[in-house]
Each structure stands twice: as C-alpha cells, then as structure tokens.
User: What shape does this take?
Amino acid sequence: MQSKKYYSLEPARFKLDGGAMFGIIPKPLWHKVHPADEMNRIELALRLVLIVTDTKKILIDTGIGDYHGEKFDQRFAVVGGQSPLEKSLESIGISPSEITDLVISHLHFDHVGGIGKLVNGVMEPVLKKAQVHLHKKHYEYSLAPTERDTGSFHIEYFKPIIKWYEEHKQIHWVDGMEGVLMPELNFKCSMGHTPFLLHAYDDKFIYMADLIPTSNHVSIPWVMGYDISPGVTTVDKKNFLQFINEKNLVMIFEHDPQFYGSTVKKTEKNEYVCGEKLAYVPTPAYSILSL
Assistant: This one.
C-alpha cells in the first residue's frame, strides 16, 4: 500500500463582502461568527490540498494568482505577494515541476488564478508537468456564463492555459456527476454554486470548494449570495452532508480562515452540523493535515 501525506497550502488570503458570502442570512447572525471589516468584507483563506504519495504529487486548486493588478488586489484585499503558489510549494521542498496532477474544482478566479503566470505579457502554466483534471461541461459553461456570474470567470487568463494543456495532451476531461478521477481520488459534482462544481474525495477527506466554503456554511440555509441557484445549493448540501456523514469524511474548507476542516454529525432534530472542527495552524504557507 502506498503511503499518503496531506498538506494544506495557503498561498494567499483575500476578502469578500460578508453579505454576499452569507446570502439571506442577516448580518447580526453571521457577523457574530465571522466579523467584517469597516468595508463589510470578511477575511477568507485560499486553501489548497496537496496529496503526496510514493509516486504522485496531486494538487487541488491553485489559489488566486499574482497578476490581477493593484486595483484588483486592493478591492479584494489580496495578501500573497509574487509567485504565491510556487513559494507555497517550495516551503515544503516541492518544485512546481514535481506536481503530477492538478484537480480543478471550478474556474472562478480565486480557485484557478494560480494556474498561470504572466511572462512578458503572455500567460504561461505554472505546473508544466501536471495532468489537469477538469470537468468538461463546467469548462464549456465558463466560456459562456450568465451575466450574473461572468465576473467570476477570468477567461482571458485561464483559457490560454487550458489550451496549452490540451495541445500538450495533459488534460483529462471529466464527465458525469460522479466517478473516478484517478486511482487516488474520486469525485462528486454539485450544481447550485456553479454548474458541475467538482469535489474530489478519498477515504479520508472531501474538498468542499464553494459548496460549503467555511465551517459557518454547514447549516443548510447558510448559502452564499454568489450561488447562481441557491435553492439547488440547499439540496446539494443536504445530499453531500448525508454522504460525508455516512462515509465519515473530513470536510476541507477552502475559505475558512480558522478551521481547515471538520467532521459532520447529525443532531436529534436531524440537522447536520460540524462535529470536530480541525484548527488551522497558522504558518507562512502550509500546514500538515491530520487526516
């Protein structure tokens, strides 16, 4: 049996509007658990997962990148510096060229921004040796989203990189709502936040991405205002939480600034809540996941 080690990489942090992050939930409720700054923004992690086995180094998502410009970085209070993904990997002694597989949950700018870097005005891939695992139907949607969510897809940055991977025959187009990504990982899709949002999982963890972005979003009605189909999200969450509880998985929260993950438990009222919250250990770039 192969050994397997899990890392939480955090190449950057940023802030989003608290009201948008908690949708219809009144501020007096969400502000108690996730306080906002003077501009109503809340701090959010950009948490990636790296799985290291005897033969592979598998990365899930890439963070926000470093090329958006000063105005963008100020608006979203981006803290990460130059080459954030490369530095995060190098902090644990791994070169970007060692990454064998890249799993992309979805193509919003804060999840796929780190996939490339600007070199003389041209986007180039950061992980040139990686096989990319991306849902085909989500990619198709990302190229023609609705006017409501078009700002979340920075097509001019990610499309050239996806094309590069296609040309180099380093892309695995994922299809269906669930299945096998590779021998080490399976996947399930949710549909409420964005079509075919891909959640990678194994027998230890599941990557929640933006279905349940923080530990404060486990409650079914606590749905982001960013979701294109909030009602669908509530159904997705209930189905996923039942699955997670049955499989005894740890949820990995991509955006929670305090907790990297949590188990799930069911109350006497048949409501799903966080079980054991797993505290985030602040380091400059990473922590080892106790899974």
Summary: Residues 4-288 form a domain with the Metallo-beta-lactamase; Chain A fold (CATH 3.60.15.10). The two ends are 17 Å apart (CA to CA). The chain is about 25% helix and 30% strand.
